[in-house]
Amino acid sequence: MAYLKSNDLFGELAPEKLYDQVPHPVLIADHLLTPDNMGALIRLADNIGANEVCFLGREEEHRLGKVRRAAASSRDNIHWYFSEESDLRKIVPEDKAIVAIETADNATCIYDTKLPENVAFIVGSETHGLSEDLLSQCDMVIYIPVPGPTRSLNVSHAAAVALFEWQRQMRER
User: Fold this and answer.
1) What residues contact 48, with CB distance under 8 A and at least 6 apart?
2) What DSSP state is assigned to residue 158?
């Protein structure tokens, strides 16, 4: 078995054909504090083929140079922006289901949940998660079971698990 460059492998497999069948997802992040996490989410959204990343909060509160550096080449491949809007339906089109990735009392396990085809995933801040106001606006809340002693995931890791589980489910339909 020999190493194969990812562009060669994925050029042959054409995983982007998924979007011939389902709409591109959207990613929303609520008041993130760390530029590295923001950049990682931009990179992740670019990897999965998302339409956009919306960061809830004020742009001037962040060191955009660090965000761009962490996003690397993805910073120019995907539409990402800041919004102070708190009504998610003013950000997310009506036809997209809003799915929170959060530990909450009404959350279902991601692996037991049929995820919607047309989706916007939202993750909370690193310290406080998603507010009750934002959770109440979501159509669905999912959690990722974490069996290790540290029971919380980094926001970019949680988003990665959810986006690739969504992709897996969409490929099986």
Assistant:
1) 25, 163, 164, 167
2) H
Neighbours of 57 (CB within 10 A): 18
Give the separation between CA 47 and CA 61, rounded to whole angstroms: 26
Q: Show the domain range for 90.
A: 23-172
Asked, for residue 5, whether it belongs to a domain, the answer is: no
Residue 18 within a domain: no
Among 114, 128, 132, 118, smallest CA distance to 169 is for 114
Q: Cα–Cα distance between 68 and 130 in angstroms, integer?
A: 24
In the chain, which ranges are E strands? 26-30, 52-56, 79-83, 97-101, 108-109, 119-123, 140-143
How many domains are contained in the chain? 1
pLDDT single digits (tens) 104-156: 999 999 999 999 999 999 999 999 999 999 999 999 999 999 999 999 999 99
Query: CATH number of the domain that 75 lies in?
Result: 3.40.1280.10
* 14 within a domain of the structure (yes/no): no
Buried b (16+ CB within 10 A) or exposed e, 116-147: beebbbbbbbbeebbeeebbebbebbbbbeee
Question: Does any domain span residue 9?
Answer: no
